[in-house]
Amino acid sequence: MRISNVNIYRADLPLLDESYNWSDGKSVRVLDATVVELVTDSGIRGYGECCPLGPNYLPSYANGLRTGLAELRPTLIGLDPLDIEVVNRQMDYNLKGHPYVKSPVDMALWDILGKFTGLPVCTLLGGRFGDYVPLYRPISQGSPEEMVERVRHYRATRGYRRFQLKVGGSDEMLDAARIRAVRSALTDGELLVADANTGWLPHQAVRVCQSVSDLDVYIEQPCATMDQCRQVREASACGLPFILDESIDSLDSLLSMRGAADCINIKISKVGGLTKARQMRDLAVHLGLAMVLEDCWGSDFATAAIAHLAHSTPEKHRLMSADFNTYHPVRTGHLAKPLTNDRGGMVAPGDRASVWSRTLPL
């Protein structure tokens, strides 16, 4: 089997909510997603997706993604899509860095492998652990009262019981008030993550952590660097669990995080695709870490890949995942059955080769 063509599609994903706001005043209303279709001479087609969260979240942006894919496209023709590691090494040779550009190609390779073998991708990634992946809902930054109301809405309408509160900015005591207000609105068994998205300076992060140290809350990526996050954890002595996200983008970063956090966030496109995400996942399991398994954003294809990566992760090590395809009205793929259920969880169907089986017109 050989790759005979590479098609690149664009899809705008307007949010069902008015906007999505996070640290330091960053905000988006419409996401720009790119879908890659790998066509093979056997007739099997594979699909992958990457959707950066605007140009100022991670070092990635939509136009750069498509420019990079145009650069890679001729180097992919003629390769065997079943040789996933070979194709990944070729991409790394032909384009230095830019892991987000390679991610949708790698995702499409796994889609092809699933269709070729007739196995669910979660089986190919290591096996299916359990039948339920807990989902979280991000809570866009607003006043404490607005954020409490959003939590209540998502709990009542979609069954979410895990929430990621968007904090981070110039007023750290307002962030502490946001955390306290939302935590007080949660019930037993519900989980809260306060995600600053690198938005605090160390002294601000220390103040917040000490202020909310009596609460049941995770602190995610309080500062810009891993060393700063480690410094905050030591200086605050708050006893709260920390999650690293933006600082974790490779195996090397994972190996150097000792003392900085208890959990990590693995985003498929941030690390370069399912192949590298699986490597990082396996190392994290070995190191005894819990994980948020997701991507930056996306539609049906990215959500399906998230579901299969999460399902192939031991249950003890998966903290939560995301169902981004429910955040907007656009359908880019044909799903065999829903990925979510009313318990606020996600199930990757195991009765077909792949749940990201084909695109609709884009």
Automatic annotation (TrEMBL):
The keyword Isomerase applies. GO terms for molecular function: metal ion binding; racemase and epimerase activity. InterPro entries: Enolase-like_C_sf, Enolase-like_N, Enolase_C-like, Mandelate_racemase_C, Mandelate_racemase_N_dom. Residues 144-239 form the Mandelate racemase/muconate lactonizing enzyme C-terminal domain. Pfam families: MR_MLE_C, MR_MLE_N. Keywords: Isomerase, Magnesium, Metal-binding. The keyword tRNA-binding does not apply. It comes from the Eukaryota. Its cofactor is Mg(2+). Belongs to the mandelate racemase/muconate lactonizing enzyme family. This is MR_MLE domain-containing protein.
